[in-house]
Every structure is written in C-alpha cells, then in structure tokens.
Amino acid sequence: MEFGRDFRIKHYAGDVTYSVEGFIDKNRDSLFQDFKRLLYNSTDPTLRAMWPDGQQDITEVTKRPLTAGTLFKNSMVALVENLASKVLPFKSFSVPWVHITEGPDILSLNPVCPTDL
Fold it and tell me: In this predicted model, what pLDDT tens digit does every residue of 59-90 receive, in sequence order?
C-alpha cells in the first residue's frame, strides 16, 4: 500500500485494498435510460422493482446517467435516514440491591442483560 494512493476496507471476509488511481473510471456506470426502461417494462415484478428509473417518459432528457458511485451513495444516504428514523426499544429495570450487600446471597444474583429480554 502506498500512502496517499491506496486505501483498505476491513471486511468480515478479509481486508480489501483499493487504489484511487483510475477508481472513478473503473466504477463508472454507463447504464443508459433506454436499458433501464427496457428492464422496467419487464413482466417480472422483481426485475421491474429494481429499475424504477425506467418509468421516466421517453421524452424526458437525462444529461448523464447516474454513476455506480452516485447510486451507491444515494442508497447509503437512504439507509442511514431509514435507520435514524427508527426508535429502538429500551427497558429499564429497578432492582432493590439494598438488602443484599454481602455474604453468600450476593453470589446467587443473576444479573439481567438488556439483550436477554
């Protein structure tokens, strides 16, 4: 790895090293609107759902198709917004510890972990 040129992403299956040289060119997506329209008009509902951009009218002009990087970034932003909108359940327990301070009774305690609920 060269400083200022390469970067590494730690992945559960192992580290993956990338180089910034040519990164944009290698990851440029040249998926044009007519291809998206073709896939959107499929009779397969799953395939159709994967290409919602294909529903744009043929008369609509798109300057440039979105790159794979832009699609990925937009997907990550939507994911983070979705996760941020969720409220996680949290339960608080009040345990009277005053009567158990020492002796064999303290060894019999079974602490409750919030993940066990």
Answer: 665 566 677 788 888 999 999 898 888 877 76
| Numbers of helices and strands, H then E, in the chain | 4, 2
Domain range for 56 is 28-84
Distance CA 36, CA 43 (A): 14
Look up tokens 């397969």; give the residue.
44
11 within some domain = no
Domain count, the chain: 1
Give the closest residue to 112 by CA, choosing from 97, 95, 100, 99. 95
- Torsion sign (Cα): 43, 49, 51, 56: positive
pTM of the full structure: 0.29
- The tokens of 24 are what? 């944009």
Q: Which tokens belong to 58?
A: 């043929």
Distance CA 45, CA 43 (A): 6
